[in-house]
């Protein structure tokens, strides 16, 4: 047991309340991830890291969510049961270690975290290959992806977060040029116009999302089960994706999402479902706060609905279609609108939230998130973190999650799906890799790049 001074309760934000109440039997709002170390580390060393850095520095990880009446709070516990929060995980030593770990993780992630304790847990795998591995489980109400990357950096031997693309994100600041009367009046006038435009754009996005048709009833919209299947791809060098993006005059994100659309198309074709004219959307999280505020934890992001060009005839066409759609979404108000709506739902009874969740999740088949991690490696207790990856949780009736993490000049791709929708996630991951090979060959003239992929 680790003992702390018990502090007063803190009110939970409405957005975090909404995420806390979003759990269902089919979809838990738990962010799951794996940390791979090439060098061995003992479980006791990792426990010291958690106690002296994570728990001691971040009060949220000493708190549990509690409900009193209709209000939700963060309550700090006088002591933590570290034997619960860090446990050993045994993986079958026979056969392929990655496949054995994948099966073990797939069985664990549908299990809920214990409600009477802080909603996080680490499972330590000693002697994985030549090093160690750790399964990380944190409830989404505690933090979003950008916040968790910041927490990881804060417990590292030294900070490398300055190398993350997220460090360049700044919140626009609106203020008068000076205290002069004329400048203050001009600022007041432009502010009125700004907020009128904001309200109009907000209402437009709300109506557009509300009245857009639900996704086509493909295999991705079947009834969900409580079981999950996970997988991950070999690390992809960022420079290769940049080369394709530069040749196509688009972003890394456009290339990756276009390849994901291609993998979804290939799976539907393989099981004999039509792809022409189908509507398959993904909800894409959009960060709404600067990196220097991420250690406040909680959730500060909105969601946009991206229609995936599953019907596109070629990888090139699909990437270009994603580029056009993302440009429109980036210039719109949809992310801010969805963030505000989620905050509003936190005010209402959970039955209203569940109805809204079911309604809005009918308009998407997948959740896809792209977290910009540091381009320099994280070092924990003297060991380099060689490969981090995670699986984004799905909500409502959505049963597919695609997670993209840029780290140490590599792109990590994680895939999670309801077992009733995609029983074999590796096939879809292989399709994603093949999609990238195809577009790389098309735009760069490369015949193959298997040897340049680095297996984790």
Automatic annotation (TrEMBL):
<dbReference type="GO" id="GO:0004144">
    <property type="term" value="F:diacylglycerol O-acyltransferase activity"/>
</dbReference>
<feature type="transmembrane region" description="Helical">
    <location>
        <begin position="185"/>
        <end position="204"/>
    </location>
</feature>
<keyword id="KW-1133">Transmembrane helix</keyword>
<comment type="pathway">
    <text>Glycerolipid metabolism; triacylglycerol biosynthesis.</text>
</comment>
<dbReference type="InterPro" id="IPR004255">
    <property type="entry name" value="O-acyltransferase_WSD1_N"/>
</dbReference>
<protein>
    <recommendedName>
        <fullName>diacylglycerol O-acyltransferase</fullName>
        <ecNumber>2.3.1.20</ecNumber>
    </recommendedName>
</protein>
<feature type="domain" description="O-acyltransferase WSD1-like N-terminal">
    <location>
        <begin position="12"/>
        <end position="256"/>
    </location>
</feature>
<keyword id="KW-0444">Lipid biosynthesis</keyword>
<keyword id="KW-0472">Membrane</keyword>
<dbReference type="InterPro" id="IPR009721">
    <property type="entry name" value="O-acyltransferase_WSD1_C"/>
</dbReference>
<keyword id="KW-0443">Lipid metabolism</keyword>
<keyword id="KW-0812">Transmembrane</keyword>
<dbReference type="InterPro" id="IPR045034">
    <property type="entry name" value="O-acyltransferase_WSD1-like"/>
</dbReference>
<feature type="domain" description="O-acyltransferase WSD1 C-terminal">
    <location>
        <begin position="298"/>
        <end position="439"/>
    </location>
</feature>
<comment type="pathway">
    <text>Lipid metabolism.</text>
</comment>
<dbReference type="Pfam" id="PF06974">
    <property type="entry name" value="WS_DGAT_C"/>
</dbReference>
<dbReference type="Pfam" id="PF03007">
    <property type="entry name" value="WS_DGAT_cat"/>
</dbReference>
<keyword id="KW-0012">Acyltransferase</keyword>
<dbReference type="InterPro" id="IPR014292">
    <property type="entry name" value="Acyl_transf_WS/DGAT"/>
</dbReference>
<dbReference type="InterPro" id="IPR023213">
    <property type="entry name" value="CAT-like_dom_sf"/>
</dbReference>
<dbReference type="GO" id="GO:0005886">
    <property type="term" value="C:plasma membrane"/>
</dbReference>
<keyword id="KW-0808">Transferase</keyword>
<dbReference type="GO" id="GO:0006071">
    <property type="term" value="P:glycerol metabolic process"/>
</dbReference>
<comment type="similarity">
    <text>Belongs to the long-chain O-acyltransferase family.</text>
</comment>
<dbReference type="GO" id="GO:0019432">
    <property type="term" value="P:triglyceride biosynthetic process"/>
</dbReference>
<keyword id="KW-0319">Glycerol metabolism</keyword>
């Amino acid at each position: 047991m680790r003992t702390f001074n018990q502090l007063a309760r803190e009110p939970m934000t409405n957005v975090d309340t909404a995420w806390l109440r979003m759990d269902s039997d089919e979809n838990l709002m738990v962010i799951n991830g794996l940390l791979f170390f090439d060098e061995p580390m003992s479980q006791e060393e990792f426990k010291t890291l958690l106690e002296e850095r994570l728990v001691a520095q971040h009060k949220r990880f000493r708190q549990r969510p509690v409900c009193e009446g209709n209000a939700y709070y963060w309550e700090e516990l006088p002591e933590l049961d570290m034997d619960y929060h860090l446990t050993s995980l045994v993986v079958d030593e026979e056969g392929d270690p990655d496949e054995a770990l994948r099966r073990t993780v797939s069985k664990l992630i549908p299990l809920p975290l214990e409600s009477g304790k802080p909603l996080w847990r680490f499972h330590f795998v000693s002697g994985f290959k030549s090093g160690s591995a750790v399964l990380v489980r944190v409830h989404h109400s505690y933090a979003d992806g950008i916040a968790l990357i910041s927490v990881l950096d804060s417990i590292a031997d030294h900070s490398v977060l300055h190398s993350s693309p997220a460090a360049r994100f700044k919140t626009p600041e609106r203020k008068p040029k000076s205290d002069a009367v004329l400048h203050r009046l001009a600022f007041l006038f432009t502010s009125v116009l700004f907020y009128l435009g904001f309200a109009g754009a907000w209402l437009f996005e709300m109506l557009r999302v509300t009245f857009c048709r639900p996704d086509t009833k493909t295999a991705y919209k079947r009834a969900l089960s409580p079981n999950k299947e996970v997988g991950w791809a070999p690390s992809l060098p960022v420079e290769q994706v940049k080369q394709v993006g530069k040749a196509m005059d688009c972003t890394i994100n456009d290339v990756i999402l276009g390849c994901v659309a291609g993998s979804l198309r290939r799976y539907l074709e393989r099981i004999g479902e039509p792809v022409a004219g189908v509507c398959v959307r993904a909800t894409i999280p959009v960060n709404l706060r600067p990196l220097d505020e991420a250690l406040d934890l909680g959730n500060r992001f909105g969601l946009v609905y991206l229609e995936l060009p599953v019907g596109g005839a070629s990888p090139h066409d699909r990437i270009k279609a994603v580029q056009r759609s993302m440009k429109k979404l980036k210039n719109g108000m949809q992310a801010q609108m969805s963030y505000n709506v989620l905050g509003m739902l936190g005010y209402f009874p959970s039955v209203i939230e569940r109805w809204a969740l079911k309604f809005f999740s009918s308009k998407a088949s997948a959740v896809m998130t792209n977290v910009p991690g540091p381009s320099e490696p994280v070092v924990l207790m003297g060991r380099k973190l060689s490969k981090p990856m995670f699986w984004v949780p799905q909500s409502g009736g959505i049963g597919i999650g695609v997670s993209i993490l840029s780290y140490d000049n590599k792109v990590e791709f994680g895939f999670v799906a309801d077992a009733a929708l995609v029983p074999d996630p590796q096939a879809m991951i292989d399709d994603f890799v093949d999609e990238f090979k195809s577009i790389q060959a098309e735009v760069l003239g490369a015949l193959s790049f298997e040897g340049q992929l680095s297996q984790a």
